Amino acid sequence: MIINTIEDLSNDIYYEIFEYLYFNDIHKAFSKLNNRFQQFTHLSYSKYNILIDYTSNEKRTLKQLKRISSINKNQVFSLSIWTWINNNQILSSFNFNSSYSNLQYLILNYLQANSIPIILHQLIDLPRLYSLTIQTEEKLKTFGKIYQLVFNLPNLKYFQCRAEESTDSNINKSLPIALSQQITSIKQLIINHPCNFKQLIHLLSYTPKLQYLEYLNLNDNITNLNILSSIQLLNLTSLSIRSSHTMFDTLEIYLDQFEFNLKIFSIDIHMEDQNYSNAQRWELILQRNFPQLEEFYMKYTNNFDDNHQPLLYTGHSNEFSSLFWIQRQWLLDIKLEFDCITYSIHPYKKRWFEYNEQERIDLSKSKQLILNDVSPERSYQTLTIHHYIKQVKSITHIDHLSINTQIFVIKLIEILQLLPELDSLKLSSKISFQKPRKVHHNELLNIFCSINRINITKLYLEKIRQMKDISFFLTICPLIKQIHINNLYKINIQSFLRLILTQIKNQLRFQNLRLLSIRLPIIDDKIIFKLKQIIQNEYLLNDYTIKRIEEIVFLEWK
Asked: Taxonomically, which superkingdom (predicted)?
């Protein structure tokens, strides 16, 4: 069968397409085309996804509700409400009951806290409700009662609850430890509101089938838990914790209370506690509690207010380079942004300079420092970037540096001098020779003569506008072997290559350079052929290879 127009497509194909669209979009696109398409919105076996969002004004929202009322309730497959406009009126118009026999996914945002129990009572009659998300910007009082209603939903597999604040001082009364007949079918639970560890234990007693858990704990350092035996969550394979002001010692006590078979563990901590930087203690906890762990993600953010100087780490440095971390390919990154330092552990990902899959990667030299702000000092502070880098170096040496903001050339050289072990440098913004003051040529010459040798061998430049941009780096970093250029701004690729290779051929400069990669938005085999011709006809290189991978041209020589 030859299909020339969309009308030639079968109804079954349209039903599959509609599964990825919202009902209002389907109605807008198809209802006025012809009789065949008009019937699509009235067929009893069609299932629809309904969205009511904050982009709708009051008049439009009421119009949407009227349109939605024209379909049968058993046609509603998913419902998402993302608006605070007429929120109560919208919810009351649906009047949830067993007529919504095919409703599986329900997202309710901007709820009034006192309306949540009323809605949950109605949802008990929904026979196929599989996923439920509720969110309120109000304080969630006695949230244990809300969870008790949720745990009564017979087929629920996914539940997310979000609130800015929550309290439940008497969790023993509002949600007592579950009995065997009170076990739920929930497999994914996201607790996106404050919840202490004691409250969490009560919640988890109802969810032994849990496979995925996200948990928010803002300020909890209660260590006297009076737990008689360990808590078994043997089906749980993924655990994510976000916390502020929870001490490392407290966290260790909490984790020791459980029996897990975790595959993925993620933790995001905001506070000052040097123990979170202690690789040896992490190693013991992970080996003791998570022997089957495959992926570990840790973010430890340390904020420095006013003139509070970062404390130097008092443990052994470079502990995250031990065999334990290298074997699992869990690597350390450090990010400096405004007045905070974030230490991150994450599974290995291929980096910009790793294009040769046959080349052996030394993961013991993989620590990266990311500078999103090279001027964390403020007018009211005496701290400089030197203080922050000093704190970082007390924990680990740095192998790779990435700078994601404009930087003054003098400050760049100062930073490079502070990090003598650097092997790679990535610059995602430009270098300033004019601000905060103009740097003259003689001053740069004096700096070049006075600085210690910089050992960088790999360089990434986001954009270059002229040849001297590269010459500057090859002057201060004479050991560079590999350069990647992400944007040749108004520079002809043939002229650019000819200039660099001519200087190499005449042994004038760039004698250590062996690999050049350049991203070109418009690239094809004809351009590669022209580059080959230039190299061969002008005898610029002898033993070389040139190829393209997607938008990037790679030129390598011996």
From this structure: Eukaryota
